[in-house]
UniProtKB/TrEMBL annotation, chains A, B:
Residues 25-79 form the HTH lacI-type domain. Gene3D superfamilies: 3.40.50.2300, lambda repressor-like DNA-binding domains (1.10.260.40). This is LacI family DNA-binding transcriptional regulator. PROSITE patterns: HTH_LACI_2 (PS50932). It comes from Paracoccus aerius.
Amino acid sequence: MTTGDDAGPIIQLGASERLGARPALTARELADLIGVSQSTVSRAFSKGTSVSPKTRAFVLEQAEKLGYRPNVIASFLSRRASSIVGVVTADFTSPVYIDMLDRLSVRMQELDIHPLLFNLQAGAEAGDQLAVLRQYNIETVIVISGRISHMSVARWAADGRKVILMNRDIPDAAIGSVRCDNSASSLVADHLWEIGLRRVAFVGGPESSAVSAEREQAFVRRVAELGMILCGREGGREYSHQSGFDGTRAVMASRPEAILYATDRLAIGGLDALSWSGGLSVPGDVSIVGFDNIDMACWPGIQLTTVHHDVPRIVDGAIELLQQIQNGREGPRKHLVKGGLVVRATTGPAKA
Amino acid sequence: MTTGDDAGPIIQLGASERLGARPALTARELADLIGVSQSTVSRAFSKGTSVSPKTRAFVLEQAEKLGYRPNVIASFLSRRASSIVGVVTADFTSPVYIDMLDRLSVRMQELDIHPLLFNLQAGAEAGDQLAVLRQYNIETVIVISGRISHMSVARWAADGRKVILMNRDIPDAAIGSVRCDNSASSLVADHLWEIGLRRVAFVGGPESSAVSAEREQAFVRRVAELGMILCGREGGREYSHQSGFDGTRAVMASRPEAILYATDRLAIGGLDALSWSGGLSVPGDVSIVGFDNIDMACWPGIQLTTVHHDVPRIVDGAIELLQQIQNGREGPRKHLVKGGLVVRATTGPAKA
DNA sequence: TTGTAAGCGTTATCAC
DNA sequence: GTGATAACGCTTACAA
């Protein structure tokens, strides 16, 4: 019953609910109530401590009944560490990053790890964030953004924070990362070849974008191997619809039969330039291909051929890394998640 | 230099950076170092305490120099309250809610208030969250979602948490809220009347959605006042593109000259059904109007006529409320932010 | 105005 | 395996 904006009228609260404002039970109080020492209560709640299974079960049961839950703030202070994880974002306009944040935050909650959100504006200083990380005793930081500088990441790591990078990597650094295999764009070249297209172009994101560069590189290499012609190439200032639109208009001067875009958003900008606003037929006049397989890609009126970016698996990888770090096992690891080509309706043989 | 995914190579860290792993300075250490008492340091950092301006300035200056920052965890424990604010979300697929989260989190950071993200899945229990709010000593919760039940909100409030609702309200409850004026949909009726359209229809969100209901109501009332004909009405299970697509197909049976949708996303689904996939002309065959004025609404190939939803001002309102609450001033307040009609290219006279 | 000292609710180090 | 007791780094009476 939690769908829609309005899940019913205000419901009268029972007596126990009303008492909520009373301060929460402390370990000491629970201990006194059930006749054990306060440290026993503490031990019952932390794993890897020496309590008899019987006592632990008893304490946990009573705690449940009386509504006791350890105060994490006190625990953080005492342990000089917190289970809060910093989640750093900067690209709320990117559907892929939003999807990652969505799934990641849900998964974290299931594990009782809570994300403190650091939404960095362009130009925010890494140092400022570092101070906050320290203030909160935050040990682990997950970066879901391509816009945070390597420098910032390096500083956090140098300060002893564990960093997990999503969708990017710092090659020779001992920093965990989980990302999709951008070289899958080579599959696009194969596909275009198979349907008989020879003149191809690439429309990318910002020049400084590693993601765009990797996707371009793998595509261009395979294009060359197959003996196809790379007739055009455009980059943008950003990963926006307008960028894809403008890039497409520009690259059409080279008369390509197909265009690969660094992301679906750019590709949809291209579809707009060509078809919605341009009066051309896709794929009749030109084929287009995206990368990421965002929700929009399968809208009835879009049906974009694209490379699948497996966000759920990337999130799984990040969660796995997170747990390894929190359990103190192993060092940083690099995950690379494969994606595959999804052929829809924006690619096909050229019109006769 | 923080645009693009890759902001340069790893930079060698200076000596002071490398030492970062050394534990942060405490108030006691700073106090000893600069020759004041620890409580003086504490006072210098909290406003409304009795310290001479001179001492405060001195302490703050030295703290800055030596890199001291109060540990907020200890502060939370001592104050039995935390400046962490819970931000509750559930609709990561809604551009408007994402935009709110984006802007809100940035504004909060500027104020040194940090958002702990609670991303609730459909069906998540309010009680579970409440336990976590207590564990973190969280006093204030901002709800950016229509899908969290009134019941949950009421329970948090009954437990003594301050709640700020964004984009919704619980009418007779003493709970703060900031939302857009959904009755602005009446402006749509006026606009359609002026361009000579008489048969209109409405495509809404889930039946349980208060937002959809309010937008529909104001529209329908004005339509009646103007003597226009409401010839059709469809609701969906959700606020998705597909819902808008399907709802449009259904409502076209009543041959409307114009359709108002509860949101832009639904309207774009409608545009897809009519134009991209349907071969009809918009606005030649039928005019369509959305609500929210999301980014997509102004894409070259969309140019959707819509009602502006002023997210920045709504966020301003929420921040204002937040500060009032944190300063202990005043009780809950209700803000209503006006929007206006944005006429673009999807409305116009019917084809001759 | 400033310093001293007693919490805040945990964890961790001791003995037993 | 369990119970006292000392941190953890702050805030806040209470004294000076």
